[in-house]
Amino acid sequence: MKKLSFLAASLLVAGTTYAQNNTQSSTSTGNSNAVTVTQSGSSSSAVGTQLGNNNALTQTQSGGASNSATSLQRGNNQTSTQTQTGNSNTAYIKQGDGIPLDNGNTATQTQSGDRNSAKAEQLSGANTSTQTQTGSDHIGEVFQSSSEGNTATQTQIGSSQQGYITQLGSGNSATQYQRGLSDKASIYQLGNSNQASQSQGTNPSSSWFSTASIEQIGNSNIASQTQQYDYQDAKIEQSGNGSTAIQNQSAGTDLVLPGNRAYIDQDDAGGHYARQTQLGVGNQADTYQGMSSNSSDVTQTGNLNTSVVKQNHP
Fold first, then answer.
1. Which of 20, 100, 208, 238 has the highest count of CB atoms within 10 angstroms of its CB?
2. What does the angle CA 91 – CA 96 – CA 100 come to, to the nearest 5 degrees?
3. Nearest to residue 68, comparing CAs of 55, 86, 49?
4. How many whole angstroms separate alpha carbon 36 and alpha carbon 18?
5. What pLDDT is recorded for position 276?
6. d(CA 268, CA 243)
7. 108: helix, coil or strand?
8. Burial class of residue 2, CB neighbours in 10 A (0-12, 13-18, 19+)
9. Using an 8 Å Cβ cutoff, are 165 and 154 in contact?
10. Residue 307's closest CA among 254, 247, 243?
């Protein structure tokens, strides 16, 4: 076991371990901070804690399985980058919440292999978070609250991926991009400038049994989901303010069944507009718009089709 503890005014640590069952721990409080930890092997653990000032952390684990990396950064300029190669690994980053404004944030986690999970929590600050996972059966989560800048981007390439983004207030934006089969993408935004976008499929083409959902409550809104080929399900719910929405689904070929299902619900007090375009197979597009500006645009081409549009609904 190796344990590093530094309570000095500035800290710079670089450590490398090659073996199984490694444990690396570092703590820093104050000023320029920076930690770099590299581990190779399985069942290793790396924990870094930084309480203030310029921060940065970076933990790399490679060539094994069942590793865990944790970065905890309280305040000031932060950054944190965690990279894992192998299977059944977990990566966790938490930035803030020293309240009031928890400064720079950034976060970035990259995992390749199977059955990995990555979670980033940013509790106020300028935020940003980027998570990239390659392989199968991954889970990626980003949670941003008491927030300011926001932005979150997750890219998952492989099958049976799950991506979740939650943003509670301030600048918002969120983008998830998934390529593979049986993927699930979900974005929840509560308040302020919003935007969100999810794209599933075409790697090389399928998004077989994939689902995408976006929920936006309050302020400028806009949401967009694009799914390509096969059996998809897309859902957008917007409540209050700017609205827009737009879903495109396609089933140009591949394994096809009756797939497709598109649902948009825009509540009262919104600028509304919606649009659902589906190209082939099972189809079904439902659009519900409450009181206010309304508009709608549904295009379905080929196969079973069915469309329901209700405006000014209770």
1. 238
2. 170
3. 86
4. 15
5. 80
6. 10
7. coil
8. exposed
9. yes
10. 247
Q: Quick one: which of 12, 96, 101 has its CA closest to 56?
A: 12
Bond into 114 cis (ω within 30): no
> C-alpha angle with apex 313: 309 to 314, nearest 5 degrees?
155
13 vs 3: CA distance, rounded Å: 12
Residue-level length of the chain: 314
Distance of CA 274 to the CA centre of its chain: 23
Q: pLDDT-derived band of residue 119, with 50, 70 and 90 as boundaries?
A: very high
pTM: 0.84
The string of pLDDT tens digits covering residues 223-272 is 987 877 666 778 899 898 998 888 777 766 555 555 677 888 988 888 88
Contacts of 204 (CB under 8 A, 6+ apart): none
Q: Where are the extended beta strands (E) located within 74-223?
A: 82-87, 90-95, 109-114, 117-123, 130-136, 139-145, 153-157, 162-168, 175-179, 184-190, 197-200, 210-217
* Tokens representing residue 61 in the block: 């684990």
Give the integer Cα–Cα distance in Å for 128 and 180: 25
Place of tokens 């943003």: 167
Nearest to 45 by CA among 25, 63, 26, 72: 25
